[in-house]
Amino acid sequence: MNITKILNNNVAVSRNAQGKEVVVMGRGLAFKSRIGDLIDPSKVEKTFTLSEPGASAKFLEIASSIPLQHMLMAERIIGHAKLHLGKKLSDSIYVTLPDHISGSITRQQEGIVLSNPLKWDIRRFYPDEFEIGCKAVAVIEEETGIHFDDDEAAFIALHFVNAEMEDDTQSVGGAYQVTCIMQEVCAIVHDTFQIDFDESSLSYYRFITHLKFFAQRVLSGTHYDDDEQEMLEVIRLKYPAAYACTERIGEMVEKQYHFAMTSDEKLYLTAHIARIQPAREK
């Protein structure tokens, strides 16, 4: 492969045998090189090919501005996540994660430690992603000697949550807002029934899965159809306490997020709440 663009001494752009643009990385790979020079295969440590145009441009910017070690750590963590999560991840993770890791390392070295107020909720709502976050901080400590606690693991987990979302235009701030809405809804359910959730139960898993997508709809302003009014009335009579709880949730999202719940939305949420509420309350 020949160099088509030099980003820094360690990163260059080329084209593979299929003519696709690739980013190649390696210590000293482009040192004293010129456009058109052949790339020494023995110096190539990683080759990246991104399919999303927007992510590709941002990736080039990140790759040229942060240490090679941070890029390679992020790639190692992403590889581990793909293997263990078994979910499709947006190419945006190759931009957001190395940028975040590099920034976190810099702040830690400067003695700036950020707390994560949603740490416990992230751990509860996204256990698999939180586990990846814990693996990530272990990798960072192994390679740099810099120690991070669970707050950083939770921050990293949100990057993977965001990369799993269907709407890849959302920022990590979007994933954070999704978690906030889930937290607020769970607080209303807990306050209504005075219960501790059985996080190992299938009903709880289904409830949380529904909440993730409900929160995304609230933030994007998209709605289910509004054609289940009759069935909603049946559910309201069968599960009055769960329905009353849903109404409280509806008031909250309308007041705070200007989102009006349709009959379909109320129907599905009431059904999920009914499954997790105490039997005595039904």
Count of DSSP-assigned helices: 11
Strand order of the largest sheet: 1-2-3-4
Structural class: alpha+beta
Please report the distance between the alpha carbons of the first and last residues. 68 Å
Q: Summarize the helix and strand pattern as letters.
A: EEEEHHHHHHHHHHH
Protein name: Transcription antiterminator LicT
InterPro entries: BglG_antiterminators, CAT_RNA-bd_dom, CAT_RNA-bd_dom_sf, PRD, PRD_sf
Domain PRD: 65-170, 173-282
Keywords: Repeat
In brief, what are we looking at here?
The chain has 282 residues and is an alpha+beta fold. It is 60% helix and 6% strand.
Descriptive terms for the model:
single chain; 3 domains; elongated; about 280 residues; BglG_antiterminators; PTS-regulatory domain, PRD; Transcription antiterminator LicT; four-stranded antiparallel β-sheet; alpha+beta; PRD; RNA binding; Transcription Regulation, Sacy, Chain A
Would you write up a description of this structure?
The protein is of the alpha+beta class and 282 residues long. It folds into three domains: 49 residues, CAT RNA-binding domain (Transcription Regulation, Sacy, Chain A); 119 residues, Orthogonal Bundle (PTS-regulatory domain, PRD); 110 residues, PTS-regulatory domain, PRD (Orthogonal Bundle), CATH 1.10.1790. Helices cover 60% and strands 6% of the residues. The chain is built from eleven helices and four strands, in the order ββββααααααααααα. The chain has a four-stranded antiparallel sheet, covered by helices on one side. A hairpin with a 2-residue loop joins strand 1 and strand 2. Helix 3 packs antiparallel against helix 6 and helix 7 packs across helix 8. The N and C termini lie far apart (68 Å). The model has no long low-confidence stretch (mean pLDDT 87).
